[in-house]
Structures are given as structure tokens and as C-alpha cells.
């Protein structure tokens, strides 16, 4: 029995999950920002897009490449309804007003880290991917016990996924600088709140770890 | 509190679910019958295809039309992996050898009752739709409390769905002659085994009931 | 990856689950038979109690002893509400009229196979133990992958448990003569219906298998 | 369809859930604080126990009394294993070292708000009560749609419960001053992080609301 969370990744029993890195909320033209003028966008989300475009997405790309090279399953979840009108969404998303219609541009993973080949994509309509998809069932079928988490936004969908994954017995590795939310303070608070539920490493650390594994070190 | 299963359908809180009525097992060219010569197919599945094509599918069509007319949500589940290689399937499907690759012709609902518009389709990789999809979550979001069941095959995926739906608090109506399995005896045994878990009606009865509702009777 | 269901029990990853072997339905004084005169009980349930008392319970005892000796986790589920008035039961049990109040004699496992020491007991209020308990979560925490099933009644709670367990990736072994329902025909029909979901063995076979394991054969 | 979270409590479809208000972590002699000298306890947990004993528990008592008077279902979850040795616990709790043995004093709700009569108590072995109990199933059977949350500790088990409940379609009301964690800063950060998932009110506000309801205002 593993009695620590500080366990290095074993690729054959690991998956990398990108959370909500999709046009809706990761592209300046995404529906989440609809109706904002350019100056409003800059004022409200300037810090966010600067971090995202110049720091976080490049780290996600490195993480994705290293995971693929090491044979780690790469998976994606995105906010997307199963319908056009969104009637299948959670009450919470209906109240919030979120609806990413099935098949829409907003529901696509951003090009920079787009899925390739036979990688698995799970549309969801709630904050935690464990509530509105059957990811737990899929991970079991894949033989996955270790979950690497990267995505948006740190203190909402990312944090909910980490909490539930931990409770369900997965060993979770959060790649802290490959997650982002709307302010540094919110990001830092979330990391502190959930540090007891996961292992927290940087992209540099995890990529090095995966490269060592791939090289048979 | 409803204290009987003999409750007529209230369209606004009802859904019709077609189970596995897809090319894989409902078309003579489906992968389930691959490798069988025409005479082997006739010998082994002659009764099944005769019933299916001449009796059951026409009833499914009437059921679908009446449900749509009455404003009942029409949903579909099909056996289909989330991947081409089927690594996300249940251990059971791996043992059985079932793999309907993502996007394949085998995974499509047969043309006779194909989904239209914004109807919901849920790919699954286990016998019970409640285990390998998040249908329970979706039905809750839709406000569905009554589930009408039609599909294939009576004593496997259909029966498992009825058992789980009943346990989860849905009032289930099984349309007995719009379900089918590989022999009359197996069909009848299954109906008897689960008659305590659901209301069992014929297509004629349910279509009349839905027409009365739609007409405001 | 295991690609057969015919896998012998590995005790460290196995559990024996007794389903509903409790006073309610396995004792002539159980509430399920309340209101029946002695002659009515004999007429309606004479075959059942004869089989149960003279054949099935003795087999359950052998199964329990062999499992304990081999180090297999022994678990029990019983129909029992979390309340006295049963308001937490499934709609199905409310309709059926089943209520085994919390803490009642009816909810106890029969003395012949009573739990000992630190064995786990899960009260349930639905047909499938996977719907109204968190057994899947517990089995995961225990490291259980193989589930041995014995109990009552073959074509209802036992069959539902086997179907769900199979879908969830457990390798299920049904001990056919340590399960019982109200007629031989119903029992046999259920065994045939689910033979694709599990390995089916007799008590003699499984006890021999467990003894070999315990002896290091 | 409710399209706001600011919905007053309707007692017949509401439940009050107390989370982990048990001897283990809410009594100075609880196992969570084992091994600490009196001065260490004071230094590390002085603020916590002062808040708990002098402010939070009295508010919980008012909340409990008002809920009972209004006919709101009162429920409790506590950290408690199903076994003495805790082998059924989540991997997370095994790593953390938490084990509250079945039936132990540590697992009991503190006397100040002890359950009475037929109230429901759910032992759990994970952070979120939705992962290690079947509370979602029970709430459904009870007809509960609104969940009032109070308990310990704000940023762990309380926050996880609110996140999952929200995703599952419950309208959650967090009673902010009837929740507590180990510092004011952590408490405030958590409230901010989840304010989009629930309605947040004080004990005074909720008690007044419940009294109005009970009085038929």
C-alpha cells in the first residue's frame, strides 16, 4: 500500500488530464468574454491572458509532449453540453448561464494543445469532471491510478477535480504552473487549500521526471 | 408520493430511451455477425432478424413518433467506445471481445429510428447504461422521473438498464414488444424476472396513452 | 489484462459477499412472511424453506469457513433502512412495501452465518447493492477485484449485484448452489441469463479451490 | 426552473447536514489532537477551540433547533471507518493517517448537537460526503433539493461537500458562521472560493428565515 502522495509517475498507470483548456475560456474571442470591449477585456482579464499565453500554455505544451513521449495517456475535458440548447447541463451551469453548445467552436480544446490520434475527450457540464462524466469508470478501465492535472481554472474546475480524484483513491499530481485562474492570489490560495490532497510540482520538475522515466533512468 | 408503478406518462417528466438499436447488432451486416455465412446467420439469427425487421423496428418507429409528438424527450444509447482501440471499455467487454470503435458505422443508430435535431445520444461500453454513462446525472438535469424503455437485447442491456433505473427511483415503463432478444423463451423469461421493477405495456397501449396525453384527453 | 472470466480466486484481491441472508426473508418468522398462516407459508414457500434450510445455508456456512480460512474478505449486505420509518428507502421499496427498520431483528444476518470480528456489513434499501451503498468505493479501498457472490434471491438482488459488479470491472464468481429463489425454474432461468457476466461454480468447486489456495497448492 | 441560488428554504424539500462535528476533531480530547501537550494544543488550536466552543457550536445548536422546528430533515456525517482497523478507508485517509474506528467515541457527534430520534447519520471515510457515502441516493429518496451546510472544517470536508452538492443539482445554503477551520484567513479564503457554488448566509439570517417559514409568514 502506497502511504505517501510523493510518488513519481509510472507511465503505464498514469494519465494527464487537461481541464477546460478550450476556446470558451482560453481564447480572447471565447464566449466567456462575449460583450466585453477590448479595453474591458484588458482591464478585467489582462493579467490572465498574459499569464496564459506567455507562460501557462507553453508549459502545457511541454507537459503534453513529455507525457506522450513517456507513454502517459493524455486526456481532455471541456465544458460542452450534449445538446445545442444546453438542457442537459447542471442546475449550477444553468444558473451561472454557461452554455457551450454541442459541437461549437467554444467547446474545442485550443489549437496549441489539440488532441491527436486516439486521445480521449470528455465533454462535461459541471465543475468537477467526476460528477458530469464517467471518467472514474474510464480511468479504471485504463488501469490508471495516478492522475496528472493541468488546466483552468485553478480554484474552480481544477480544484474540484483534484478533491474528487483524491477521495476516489487516485494519486494526484497537480502541475502548479500549468494551472491558472484570474488572479495570483486566488491561484495561491487554492494551491494552499488543496496541498493535502495531492502532490504539487512544477512543469520543470514533472517534465524532468517523465524524461527520466522515458529514458529508463 | 407515488405508491404504484402503474403511472401514465407525463411527457414533461418523461424520456424514451432506445437501447443499442444500432448497426452493430441490429443490421445483418453488423460486426456482431461478422464471419457468419448467410446460412449460418439464417440458422442462428433467422428468428431474431425476422422479428426485428418485421415487428419490433416498426413498433419502435411508432413509439418514437408518438413520443416526439407528445413532447417526450427521445434519447439513445449505443455500444461505442470512446477510442478506436477500445481501451476505455469495461473489462467485461474486453473479455467478451466487443469493440465498436468511436465513430464507426457499427456504432450508429439504425436509419429507421435515427436521432434528429437536438436529441441526446450516449455511447456506452458496458451492459447497463447507468454504469458507463452519466445518464442518471442527465436525466436529473432534464427533470425526468419516468423512463420508457425499448431496445436490444431484452435480457442483457435492456434488463440491466431497467433494474438500475428502478433502483435509482425512476418509474420505468418497459414497452415489451419493442424489446427483443435471441429467442422468445429468453424474452419471456426476462419479462417475468423484472416485472416487479417496472410497468410493462405494449406499443399499442403506450402509443394510445401518449396520443391521449398529446390530445389533452 | 485478464481476458477470461474463468480466473481462480486470489484471496488477497477477493471478497465473498453474502446478499440478504437475513431474518426478514430467510427465517420463517421474518417480516416478509408476516400474516401467512402456517399452511399458507408451507404452500407458498415450502420448497424455498426446505431448500434454504437443508441445502443452501449449509453451503453458505462451508463457503464462509473456507473464505475465512483462505484470507478472503467476508462481507454482508442486508435490506435495512437507515431510519425506523424507512423514508430513506428507494421509491421501488416504498412501492413494494418493504421496510426493514434500522436495528430491527429482521435486518440481522441469520445466526447460521453471522458476521464475526471486524467483518463489514452494509445495509441497503434497493435491489442492487451497488446503487444504495458505496460498496464499489469500499472494494476499491480494500483492493478487491474478484467478487464471490452467494445469497438471496437469485433472480433479484443477487442478479442485480452480479450485473453491476461485472459492468464495474469486477471478476464475479457466482456460487450457484449457494444462491436461492422461490422456484427451481426461476433460479435456473436467472443462472442462464447471467452466465455471460460471471463465472458460475458450485460450493464444492469453490471450497476446493479455496482450500488449494490456502494450502499453497 | 430555478435560475438563482438565492432561494429561501422550503422545509419539505430541505435538509440540514452537519459535517464532522464529532469528538475526533471537535473535542480537545479527540484523537486528532492526541499527543499534544496542553500548551501545544493551546498554541496550535487555541483560536480554533475558542471559536468553536464559544461561537460556532452555539450557532449550530440554534440552527439545529430552528431546523427541527421548521420540519427540515437534520442529518449528520462523521469521519468513521466501517471497520476497527480502517482498511475500508480511502487511500487518502490511509496516507493522512486518519482512522476513526467503527463505534469509537471519536466517531460520535459531540453531545451539544447529538442526533435524536430517527435522524440520519452517515459515517464516511473521505473528504467529500458524496464520495464515500450514498448520500445523493438518500437525498433523492427523501425528496431533498436544498441542502443547508454547517460543520468542520470549512476548507476541507465542508468545501468538498458544497462543491459536489452544487454539481449534483442541489441548491446549497452554507451557514458561514456555523462552519470553522483552523484560521480566519483559511476560512475567509474558502468562503470566497466557493461563493459561486452556493448561497452564503449567517446563522441569524437562516434562523430568522426558518422561523418565518415555521410561522407561516
TrEMBL record, chains A, B, C, D:
Source species, domain of life: Bacteria
InterPro entries on file: Isochorismatase-like_dom, Isochorismatase-like_hydrls, Isochorismatase-like_sf
Entry keyword set: Hydrolase
Domain Isochorismatase-like residues, every copy: 15-203
Gene3D superfamilies tied to this protein: Isochorismatase-like
Pfam families in the cross-refs: Isochorismatase (PF00857)
Protein name (record): Ureidoacrylate peracid hydrolase
Source organism of the structure: Paracoccus seriniphilus
Amino acid at each position: 500500500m502506497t502511504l505517501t502522495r510523493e510518488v513519481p509517475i509510472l507511465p503505464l498507470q498514469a494519465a494527464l488530464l487537461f481541464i477546460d483548456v478550450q476556446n470558451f475560456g482560453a481564447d480572447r474571442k471565447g464566449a466567456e468574454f462575449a460583450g466585453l470591449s477590448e479595453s474591458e477585456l484588458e482591464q478585467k482579464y489582462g493579467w490572465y491572458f498574459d499569464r496564459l499565453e506567455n507562460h501557462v500554455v507553453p508549459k502545457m505544451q511541454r507537459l503534453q509532449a513529455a507525457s506522450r513521449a513517456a507513454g502517459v495517456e493524455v486526456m481532455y475535458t471541456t465544458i460542452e453540453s450534449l445538446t445545442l440548447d444546453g438542457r442537459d447541463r447542471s442546475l449550477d451551469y444553468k444558473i451561472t448561464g454557461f452554455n457551450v453548445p454541442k459541437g461549437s467552436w467554444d467547446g474545442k480544446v485550443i489549437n496549441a494543445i489539440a488532441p491527436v490520434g486516439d486521445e480521449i475527450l470528455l465533454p462535461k457540464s459541471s465543475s468537477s469532471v467526476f460528477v458530469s462524466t464517467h471518467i472514474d469508470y474510464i480511468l479504471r478501465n485504463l488501469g490508471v491510478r495516478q492522475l496528472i492535472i493541468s488546466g483552468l481554472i485553478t480554484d474552480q474546475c481544477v480544484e474540484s477535480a483534484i478533491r474528487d480524484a483524491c477521495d476516489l483513491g487516485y494519486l494526484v499530481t497537480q502541475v502548479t504552473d500549468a494551472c491558472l485562474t484570474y488572479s495570483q492570489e486566488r491561484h495561491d490560495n487554492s494551491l494552499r487549500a488543496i496541498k493535502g490532497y495531492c502532490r504539487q510540482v512544477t512543469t520543470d520538475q514533472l517534465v524532468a521526471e517523465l524524461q527520466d522515466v522515458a529514458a529508463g533512468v
